[in-house]
Amino acid sequence: MGKSNKNKAGQLENSATNSSWGGRFNEPVDAFVARFTASVDFDQRLAPQDIQGSIAHAKMLEKVGILDSGELTQIIDGLQEIASEISEGRFVWSQALEDVHMNIEAALTERIGIVGKKLHTGRSRNDQVATDIRLWLRDQIDTIKPSISQLQRHIVNLAVAEANTIMPGFTHLQTAQPVTFGHHLLAWNEMLERDFGRLCDCRKRLNQSPLGSAALAGTSYPIDREFTAAELAFSKPSENSLDSVSDRDFAIEFCAFASMLMTHLSRISEELILWASAQFQFIDLPDRFCTGSSIMPQKKNPDVPELVRGKTGRVTGQLISLLTLMKAQPLAYNKDNQEDKEPLFDAVDTVLDCLRAFGDMIPAIQANREAMYGAARKGFSTATDLADYLVCKGIPFRDSHEIVGRAVAYGIANNKDLGEMSLKELQRFSDLIEQDVFDVLTLEGSVAARNHMGGTAPEQVKAAAARALELIRTRN
Ligand code: ARG
């Protein structure tokens, strides 16, 4: 890096020395360094929270006598005007001013003069940014929470509609036992319920005010941290100033929540993709969630679930970025922390998009009940029921397992499912088998028999769905 500060055209950059910290510098910052260290291109998203935090801080300064009421009014009015300029897209951002905080402060000073310079009393950009990003993430969490609940409601409502629909349940992707589609859907709901809980935990822990920690050690001004914490609806001021300016656990926790949520959405996507295939045909996804192929006229590709599955890797990547960002940082603030924003923003944006896609798609799923039923009839899905039947007749389970295994081998050789065999055929494997065996060999009998909390019986699915809807309605 040369001494001169010229850009490609050879003109002196007016980025010059930043007026917020330029006092001890003898030469202007290198133009490349100015660009390299600036964050305003992305952290301008924090502007509403930055202004909210500044107003709270200014009110506190007035309360403790550092500002007079006239100065406070000027600051609040100025900040509010800047907020409108920003939201209307009229604000001119300057990379030379590095970040969102200094852009807004410079605009305030330009507007109200010397009083603008008093705003930063007893504060540092370190506690400022730590506050802004917590406020921002808290706002985002408050948007994400209802979209998870809405998606859950769609899933549970579909489960109620499909409480009696029989499909094969799988282990190892091999037909295992019949289940109801409603039961399968409620399994998805449980995943999302845990995600919701994780998100609430994250919110709880992030909701402490770092304001007043200043650069790292606190400040010698007689500040009132309880006041700013309450003003910004934080539960309390944070305990330790060193920790407060360097802690980014909340961003990591959010990305951990987001990665888990995306993993669940990805698993659901995988099932939707399989089920929409010509081989399964369990569901139909409306055309608006699919695209065609430019070469194969028959294709209807499930792009939306495929993309959600694909974006999961991206969110998990942001989690790893943040963990890696933090792992070697000594206390307290380091410039590395500026790199926390883009991964966090991207994780939030991706999660919101995917929840929106799912919220639109799930209620539009058409279940193909015949195909599901037909598939459940294949693959000896009631073999366990036959084994349990023999146990009820007094045969030890290991022996009945063996007997049914032979019946299945016979079925494979003769291309017959257990329910399709005659009583005579079944009796070849055990003379304890009687006419009532057909009650358990039917798919309806099989699912109805699993009639306990958490089981697949339609009655249980309806009860579980009612509990789930009540929980979604009452929790927060
Ligand atoms: N733009 C910075 C960030 O995002 C703000 C804090 C800068 N603090 C400092 N001491 N340079 O982290």
Task: Give a description of the structure.
The protein contains 20 helices and six strands. The protein has three domains: 4-121, Fumarase/aspartase (N-terminal domain) (Fumarase C, Chain B, domain 1); 128-373, Fumarase C, Chain A, domain 2 (Up-down Bundle); 383-441, Ribonucleotide Reductase Protein R1, domain 1 (Orthogonal Bundle), CATH 1.10.40.30. It is elongated and about 100 Å long. With 476 residues, it is mainly alpha-helical. Helix 8 (181-206) runs antiparallel to helix 11 (249-275), helix 8 runs parallel beside helix 20 and helix 11 (249-275) packs parallel to helix 13 (341-361). The strands form three sheets. It has a two-stranded antiparallel ribbon with strand order 1-2. Helix content is 60%, strand content 4%. Strand 1 and strand 2 form a beta hairpin. Bound molecules: arginine. Arginine is lined by residues 39, 43, 99, 125-126, 129, 333, 335, 337-338.
Provide a quick synopsis of the model:
The chain contains 20 helices and 6 strands. The protein is mainly alpha-helical and 476 residues long.
